[in-house]
Amino acid sequence: MEELSVSELIKSFVEVRQSTIEICRPLVTEDYVVQPIPQVSPPKWHLAHTTWFFEEMILVPFLDNYKRFNKNFNLLFNSYYKAAGKHWLQAERGQLSRPTVSEIKNYRQYVEDFIEKLLNMGTQNEKVLFLLELGIHHEQQHQELLLMDIKYILGTNIELPTYRETELAKASKLKVEWFSIDEGVYEIGHKDKGFSYDNELPCHKSYLQKSEIRTGLITNGEYLEFIESRGYEKAELWLSLGWDWVNDNDVKAPLYWIRKEEKYFEFTLNGLRELDLNAPVAHISYFEADAFSRWSGHRLPTEQELEIFESKSQIKGELWCWTSSHYSPYPGFKNFEGAIGEYNGKFMCNQFVLRGGCSATPKNHYRETYRNFYPPHERWMFSGIRIARN
Amino acid sequence: MEELSVSELIKSFVEVRQSTIEICRPLVTEDYVVQPIPQVSPPKWHLAHTTWFFEEMILVPFLDNYKRFNKNFNLLFNSYYKAAGKHWLQAERGQLSRPTVSEIKNYRQYVEDFIEKLLNMGTQNEKVLFLLELGIHHEQQHQELLLMDIKYILGTNIELPTYRETELAKASKLKVEWFSIDEGVYEIGHKDKGFSYDNELPCHKSYLQKSEIRTGLITNGEYLEFIESRGYEKAELWLSLGWDWVNDNDVKAPLYWIRKEEKYFEFTLNGLRELDLNAPVAHISYFEADAFSRWSGHRLPTEQELEIFESKSQIKGELWCWTSSHYSPYPGFKNFEGAIGEYNGKFMCNQFVLRGGCSATPKNHYRETYRNFYPPHERWMFSGIRIARN
Amino acid sequence: MEELSVSELIKSFVEVRQSTIEICRPLVTEDYVVQPIPQVSPPKWHLAHTTWFFEEMILVPFLDNYKRFNKNFNLLFNSYYKAAGKHWLQAERGQLSRPTVSEIKNYRQYVEDFIEKLLNMGTQNEKVLFLLELGIHHEQQHQELLLMDIKYILGTNIELPTYRETELAKASKLKVEWFSIDEGVYEIGHKDKGFSYDNELPCHKSYLQKSEIRTGLITNGEYLEFIESRGYEKAELWLSLGWDWVNDNDVKAPLYWIRKEEKYFEFTLNGLRELDLNAPVAHISYFEADAFSRWSGHRLPTEQELEIFESKSQIKGELWCWTSSHYSPYPGFKNFEGAIGEYNGKFMCNQFVLRGGCSATPKNHYRETYRNFYPPHERWMFSGIRIARN
Amino acid sequence: MEELSVSELIKSFVEVRQSTIEICRPLVTEDYVVQPIPQVSPPKWHLAHTTWFFEEMILVPFLDNYKRFNKNFNLLFNSYYKAAGKHWLQAERGQLSRPTVSEIKNYRQYVEDFIEKLLNMGTQNEKVLFLLELGIHHEQQHQELLLMDIKYILGTNIELPTYRETELAKASKLKVEWFSIDEGVYEIGHKDKGFSYDNELPCHKSYLQKSEIRTGLITNGEYLEFIESRGYEKAELWLSLGWDWVNDNDVKAPLYWIRKEEKYFEFTLNGLRELDLNAPVAHISYFEADAFSRWSGHRLPTEQELEIFESKSQIKGELWCWTSSHYSPYPGFKNFEGAIGEYNGKFMCNQFVLRGGCSATPKNHYRETYRNFYPPHERWMFSGIRIARN
Fold first, then answer.
1. What is the mean pLDDT of chain B?
2. Would you call D76 and C158 a contact, using CB atoms and an 8 Å cutoff?
3. Backbone angles phi, psi at A359, to 5 degrees
4. B156: which of B193, C241, D83, D166 is 20 to 30 A away, CA to CA?
5. Are the Cβ atoms of A32 and B30 closer than 8 angstroms?
6. D360 and D148 Cβ atoms separated by less than 8 Å
7. Phi and psi (nearest 5°) for B330?
8. What is the tens place of the pLDDT at every residue in C88-115?
C-alpha cells in the first residue's frame, strides 16, 4: 500500500464521512438511541464519537482559535482515552436522549467544515496528515461497528425489522481444500510505507511449524452437525472458561440462530431467513470456534499462520476468523505517541486476534497484517471459523 | 365522591387520553425511548401500556370479534400481570427501538376508536364501566409516572434540558403550626360509592393515639440544616438498611440537588434553579425522611394519622408524604377479581405508604383515602416530609 | 413477670452462660468455624459475641481499671453496634481461623470472672443490673441462634451429621379448632414491671376486628397438599417479591426437606428422618406462609391478634408463627438509651413479626408480648404457620 | 532429568506425602477449615484432594476390588475434572466442617496403604507408574499452594499469626547486570525422557529477537519508587483491564504490604517485618508487573526468553516471574489422555505464564521448561518481576 497525497486524503475523508451517514440511512430516529447490551453503542454515539476524534485529536491541538462545537461533547463522546479527560461510562451511553440525532448531524457538519478549512490552509504538517489518515481508518472501523450494532439493535426488537431489502443469494456447496505452509522463518507484520496501526509493527521474524489451513470457512451445515452431536453439552470439548460461559448463558447455537418447529432460521441484515447450510457460520465466540475445531479433530490457526495463508493464497475473508493467538505485543512494539497511544496497546490482555476482514469491513480499510481482537465470549461481530491442522 | 354516568365516563376517557399526549408534547423523539435506570420507563412505553390496559382488560374480553392492533403488544406492554401472559422484563424496556413513537400513537387511536365504539353500543354492562373507570384512573397514575420519568430522563442528560419554560414562584416563609388529633377510634378507608382502588377497602375502625401533625411540609432550608449538621454521616439517625443505602450509594443530598461552588441548585421540570429554601424538600427516600424526623426530634406520621389529618384539615399536599406505615392489607382486604386483582395486593411487602398527592397528580384522581406506596430507597417520585409528634 | 433480685440475676447469669456451652458440646472443633451462608455465624463467633456484650456494655464502662481480654475483640465481636466502634463484616466471620475455640473459651471465663467480681462488690447501680439482665436475655437469644446455625452448618455437610441422638416422637393427628377474638379495643404491649425489650413498649390500645385463629399449626401433611396442588407454580398465590424469590432460588419445598425416590425426608437436629405428616411444617419463609394461607382460603394473623390469642388461649408455640404485620414501632416507641439503643429500633424496616416462641427458645426467655422479626425470605429459623379467618 | 525406577518412585511417594503433613504441622485445627477468598482452599481440602487424585486416578481403575474410603469423597474432593464426575463448587469449600481434619488424615493413610500395596504387587504397568509420578508432582504443586493458602489464611486474621519462627536474613544490595540473548532460532519445551507436564510439549523451534534480561529481580526498594512516583494513579502505565482492577479494588501496594505511620511492613510466613528494600518484591499481579516494567522503561520478558535465560544463566528463581506471554498451547500440543487431560489444556485462555519457580516450590519438582500460569489479577502466589529490554 502506498502513502496517500493530501488531495487523496481529503477525498477519502469526504467519502468516508458520507459513507457513515449512508450506513445509518435505513434507521428510524428511535434506532439511533438504544443500547440493548453494554458493548453495543447507540448509532448516534458512533456518529458523534468519530467526529469527536477529528475534533479532539486534530482541530483542538492544531487549528488556532478553534472553538469546540459543544464543551460537553468531550466528556460524552470520548470512548476510553484517559489522556483526553474523563468520559461517560460505556455501559450508560443508552441512558442519554440528548444530544439528538439532528444535533449530532450538525456537529458532524461543523467539524467537517473546520477539517476541510484546516486542510485547505496548505500548511499541513506530517502529524496532522497522519492523524487525519488515522481518523479516517478509525471511522471506517466504526462503520463496521455500526453495522454490528445496528444488527444487534434490530435483532432485539420482537418483530426483527429488516435493515436492507436486497435478496441474499444461496451459497454454493463447499469444496474442501487445504493450503500448505512450510516450516521455517517468516516475516510477520506491516512492511511497506502505507498506513498501519501500531499493533502491526514492527515487522519481525517468526518461526512457523509445518501446517495446513483449510481454504473454505466452516459452514452452517458443518456447525449444525456439531450441535446435533451434542457439542454444547460435552465438557471435554471446551476450555474451562468456555464451559462456564456456555452454562451461565445457556448457549445452544450461534447468536442470531432461531429455532422454530425443528427448523433453524438466521436473523440477518436482510431479515430473518432459513439457515443456508452452505454459507459460513457467523457470530461465533472464540469459545465456540475453539470447541468446534477440537470436535472436528483440528485446531484454530495462529495469527501468524493466517497472515502467511492470506498473503500467499490471496483468499479474502467473508468473516473475521478467530485465531488461537492471544492478542499480545509484537517484539519491539511501540505505542503511537500521545493520546492515540491508547488506541491498541492497552487492550493486549485477555483478548484473541481475529484475521481476514469481513463483508462489513469497508473497502481500502483492510490489510493482510490487520489485527482485529475481541474477548473470547463476544460474538456480535461478524466472526467465523477457519481450521488448521499440523 | 359520586358514581359517574356513562357519558361522564366517556368524556373523562377522552380528556384523560388527550391529557397524556399533552404531557409528552415537549419531548423530542429521542426522549421517548431511553430508560436510564430500571424503574424509569421510556415515555413511549407508558403511552403503549396505558393503551394495552384498555385493549386487554376491556376490548379483548368484551368486544366481539375485536382484533388486536398487534399480536406482540401483549408481550411488550403488559407491565406485570401474570394472569395476562408473559411480559417483557421491566428493566429491558429501554432496549427496544420499535415500535416507534408514531406506531404507538396509531395504536392509541385504534384502541380509543374501539373503546368509543363499544361504549356507544348502548349495552354496557357494569363490569365494562367499572373497568373503564379503572383504566382511566390507571392512565392518570401513569400521567404522574410520566412526569417523574420525564424529569429523570431529562435530568440524566448532561445539559439538563428544561421540560417547560414557565417561571416558578418563590415560596413564602413557612409558619410552623401543628394540627391535633384526639385519641380514640376512627374510621379508616374508603366509605362512599365513588371509585376507589381495592387497597382502600374495607372501611374499618382503627384506634389512634393522641398526636399532632405539622401543617407545613419540611422545607429545603430545614433539610439543609440536617445536611449541614452532618446528618448523612451519623449512623445513629438511620435505620440499618438506610445506613447501608447511604453508604453504598454515597448519598449526600436529595435527588436533583446539585452543588456548585458552595451553593445548592435543584433540577426541576422548569430547569435548574437555585435552591428555594422556603419550598418543601422533594425527592426524598423513606430512609431520609425517617432519619430527618429522628434528627428533628419528631417522627413520621402513620398513614391513619395522615388520613384523619387530611380529612379534617382540608390541607392538600404539594408532595406525597412518607408515612411510617409499611404497606399492608386492611383488615378484611380483598383483591379486585381477575387479572386486575394483581393491581395492588401483590405489592404489600417491603414498601411504605405515602399520602396526600402532589402537584403532578391529575385533578379528580386523588382521594383522602388514596394509598400510594414505594420501596424505602426510592426517590424519583415527588415525595416529601411531613412530621408528627405525640 | 417480676423483677429479679441481684442474687437471682447472678444465678441466672451463671446458668445461662453454662447453658450456651452445653449447646455447643456436641460439636467438633471444625463445626465452630464455618459460615456456610452470610446470615449463619460460626458458633465460636456466638460464644465470643455474647461475651463481648458483657465486656463492652458493662465491664468497660462500669468496672474501674478493667483491662480488656484482647483489644482486637471489640472489632471482631461487635455485631452491628455503630456506637461501639467499627466491626468486622458479618458476611466475613467465617474467614477467620483465629482466635481459636480454646482462646474464646478463655475469654468467656475471663469476662465471667470480672462480671461476678463486679456484682459481688455490692455497689450495683440500677443500670448495671439492667444491662446484666439485658445481656442474659441477649445470650438466650443467641442460644436459639446457635441451634439455628448449628442445624444449618450440619445440614450443609454432605453426610448430614446428627446433633443429638434422642429419638423424636411421632406427632399425633391434628384436631382442627378455632379460637375466637371479639371486635374491640385491646391493650397491646408489655405491661408489668419485669424485663422486656424496648420494642414491646409502650403498652397501648389497638382496635381489633372480629377474627378466629386456628389453634393448631399447619402440618407437614397440609403443606404437602399445597405442594402437590402445584402451589409453588401459581403466580396468583404469591406476593410479587415472593414470586421472584421462588423463581430466583428454584424453591420447591421448605428448607431441609429432601426428596428421595418419591418420598420426603426432613433434616432435623436428630438427623434425617421421614417426614412426619402430623408434625407442624417448619423452616418456612414469610412468602411461603403467605402463599399457603392464601391458597387455603385463609390469611395470616396480625401480631396483635396473636398476642391476644396467646394470652387468652395459653397455647404456647412449638414454632415461631409468621404474622402479616411488618415490624414497625409501637405508638410512642423509644429506643433503649446508648449503644443498646441499636438493639431493635434500627431494624424496623422490611421485616415481618413472628410470635409465639419455639422449642429452641430458652425457658424464661419468652413473653407473650415478645416480637421476633425476620426478612420475608428467611427460613433457617424455626418458623411455622398459624392461620386466621375473619 | 532421568526416568525414575519403581523403588525410587515409592521412596519419592512416601517422602512427598510426609512432607505435605509437615507443611501443615504448625497449624491449629481451625486454620485447616477456612476459605477467606474463593481461590484460597482450606488446608484440609488440599490434604484430601491430593489423596483423592491417587485414589481416583490409580486405585479405582487399577486395583481390583478396591473399595473407596468414603463414597462421597469423589464429589467433595474432585477439584475440576469433569470426566471424574460432579464436584463441589470451589468457592464453597470453606462451607464444610466435615469431614474433620482427623478423618482426612485417616483417609490419607488408607489410600497410602493401598498405593503401597498396589506397587508392591510387582505387576505395575507403565500407566500406573506414570500416574504415580504425576500424582507425586501434583501433590508437590499443592504443597506450594498450601503455603500460599496458609499465608493468606493467617494474614486474614487480625493478629497476623506467625507460621514459622526462623529469622529472615536481610537481603544484600542488588548489583544490576543484564544477560544477553542472541537473535535466532531456539528449541523451546521439554526435551529429555524425564517427567514433564503435557503443556511443556512438544519441544519445538521458536525465533527469538535479540534481548537482554536483568539477572536480579525487581526489589522492594525499586517498587517503592514506582509507588512514590504515583505509579498507581497514572492510567497511561496500565493495561485497560489493569486500570479497572486498580480502581475497583483500590490497590495501592503489593499484597501483604501494610503501611503504619509512614513506614511499610510486609506480612511473611515468618510474621510481620519491616520492608526489606533489597529483597525482591513479591505478591505482584501481572497488571502491576506490566505497569512497573513500562514505568521503568523496560518490558516483561516472554516465556521463551526466560526459558533460554534460565537454561544458560543457571540463575534459579526466588519468585515466579511474570512473562508477557499469554498461556497458549505449544505448536502440536496434545493433552494427556483421559481425565488427566483436564490438567492443563483447558486453562489456556486469559492467563499468563510465570517462569522460574520460587522458594516455596518443592525441590525436584521444578524444571526450566516448567510453565506456571495465573490470571493477570492474582497475586496471592509467590510472584515477582524480572525485566527485559531489546
1. 95
2. yes
3. -65, -15
4. C241
5. yes
6. yes
7. -70, 155
8. 999 999 999 999 999 999 999 999 999 9
- Does position D1 have pLDDT exceeding 50, yes or no? no
DSSP D172-218: PPP---EEEE-SEEEEES--SSS---GGG-S-EEEEE--EEEESSPP
Contact B100, A28 (CB under 8 A): yes
pLDDT of residue D3: 63
Reduced 3-state DSSP string for chain C? CCCCCHHHHHHHHHHHHHHHHHHHCCCCHHHHCCCCCCCCCCHHHHHHHHHHHHHHHHHHHHCCCCCCCCCCHHHHHCCCCHHHCCCCCHHHHHHCCCCCHHHHHHHHHHHHHHHHHHHCCCCCCHHHHHHHHHHHHHHHHHHHHHHHHHHHHHHHCCCCCCCCCCCCCCCCCCCCCEEEECCEEEEECCCCCCCCCHHHCCCEEEEECCEEEECCCCEHHHHHHHHHCCHHHCHHHCCHHHHHHHHHCCCCCCCCEEEECCEEEEEECCEEEECCCCCECCCCCHHHHHHHHHHCCCECCCHHHHHHHHHHHCCCCCCEEEEEEECCCCCCCCCCCHHHHHCCHHHCCCCEEEECCCCCCCCCCCCCCCCEEECCCCCCCCEECCCEEC
Nearest Cα residue to A111 out of A178, A163, A58, A186: A58
The minimum CA-CA distance between D89 and chain C, rounded to whole Å, is 12
Q: How confident is the model at residue B3 (pLDDT cuts 50, 70, 90)?
A: low
Helix (H) or strand (E) holding D24: helix D6-24
The mean pLDDT value of chain C amounts to 95
Provide the ipTM. Answer: 0.96
∠ CA C294-C295-C300, nearest 5°, is: 30
Q: Cα–Cα distance between A278 and A216 in angstroms, integer?
A: 11
* 3-class secondary-structure state, position B355: strand
Q: Strand locations in chain A, DSSP E?
A: 178-181, 184-188, 204-208, 211-214, 257-260, 263-268, 271-274, 320-326, 352-355, 372-374, 383-384, 388-389
For chain B, the residues whose C-beta falls within 8 A of a C-beta of chain A are 28-37, 44, 72, 75-76, 92, 94-101, 153-154, 156-159, 161
- Which residue among A209, A235, A347 places its CB closest to the CB of D204? A209
Question: Which residues from chain B sit within 8 angstroms of residue A45, using beta carbons?
Answer: none
Nearest Cα of chain A lies from the Cα of D74 at a distance, in angstroms, of 18
| Helices C220-228, C286-295: crossing angle, 10 deg rounding | 80
The Cα D322–Cα D254 span in angstroms is 14
Three-class HEC string of D320-331: EEEEEEECCCCC
pLDDT in tens, C327-367: 999 999 999 998 899 989 999 999 999 999 999 999 889 99
Nearest to B324 among C205, C328, C390 (CB): C328
Q: Which residues of C touch B (CB under 8 A)?
A: 80, 82-83, 183, 185, 204-207, 209, 235-236, 238-243, 286, 299, 302, 324-326, 328-329, 331-332, 341-342, 346-350, 376, 390
pLDDT above 70: residue C210:
yes
Q: What is the pLDDT of residue A162?
A: 97
Flag if A346 and D239 touch (Cβ within 8 Å).
yes
Q: What are phi and psi of D289, to 5 degrees?
A: -60, -40
Residues of chain A with pLDDT under 50: 1
